[in-house]
Design a protein that fits this description.
Elements: E1 3-6, H1 12-25, E2 29-33, E3 45-49, H2 56-64, E4 70-72, H3 76-84, E5 88-90, E6 96-97, H4 99-117, H5 130-177, H6 188-199, E7 212-215, E8 218-221, E9 229-232, E10 235-238, E11 244-246, E12 251-259, E13 263-270, E14 273-283, E15 290-291, E16 296-300, E17 302-303, E18 308-317, E19 320-322
Parallel strand pairs: 1-2, 1-4, 2-3, 4-5
Antiparallel strand pairs: 5-6, 7-10, 8-9, 10-18, 11-16, 12-13, 12-15, 13-14, 14-16, 14-18, 17-18, 18-19
Helix pairs in contact: 1-5, 3-4
Amino acid sequence: MPIWVDADACPGVIKEILFRAAERAQIATTLVANQYIKTPPSKVISSIQVGQGFDVADNEIVLRVTAGDLVITGDIPLAAEVVEKGAQALSPRGESYTKETIRQRLNMRDFMETLRNSGVQTGGPATLNHTDRQTFANKLDRWIAKQDKQKKAKELDDRIRKIIEEEIRKAREKAKKNNKDDSFGLTPEALALSSEFANNKGKLPWPLEKGVIISRYGKQKHAVFAGVETFNNGVDIATDQNSTVRVIFDGTVSRIFFIKGEGKAVLINHGEYFSVYSGLKEVSVKTGDKLLSKEKIGVVVTQEQENKTELHFEIWKGYDKHDPSNWLFKAY
């Protein structure tokens, strides 16, 4: 998702923070202003100069912004419009705008304007200080980290779906050759394995010997922007460094692949069910290996920059994702 900057009133120090972050994360960042804005040489940073006139730059941002984008602005009416379109808005002081806070700020702005029209000296906004800059930088970093995580989750989801489609296609072709009429094309052995897997719902061992679920399946509230939700296709389990990852049930290693910035992932077939283990630095199995429950498949990776050791774990039945917490022993 790109970043749009209401650049005419954006402080230079905030632009510098944006330039560094955009270049580091390779996120498209566009500055929109009524005047020429100098930007550093970059493939991801650009500027748009619009005509003179009140709200011309704001209107250009509203026209171009889409749901999920981030807009940097201290202009409350502009923030209201982009939030209404499903985008997120962040002020140069690091304030995250929501419909509720925007309503409060608009009321306060109208009140202050009434005072000024009555001759009361209200003074201007406080000078941007170090705390403001740090708050802005921290919230920007958290937004970028969330975008990166969502991008990796989508890549993982796409890879899993393609692998499962291939598995089902192969199973159907095999069943057709054997004159069997099964929607999934399962062999009697695979049907029995699926049945056993289903019978163990709520009793399956965890994919780690010890750990804590820190992000559950389904909709999750955004850590920075209230009212914004993301979706987790599985569960994220925090654990110790160099922890062993183990298979939760008997099965066959279907595929091993790599997600940039996340580590290796292993997909294991349990008949019509699949389990996915993502975030491994080492894999001790190979494609086609038949595994028994709790057998080691690898070692979880530690993200040094964030100082976190987490395994992302998913369960699928055919093309449908399931909440792993309903399957693992005492996960709720």
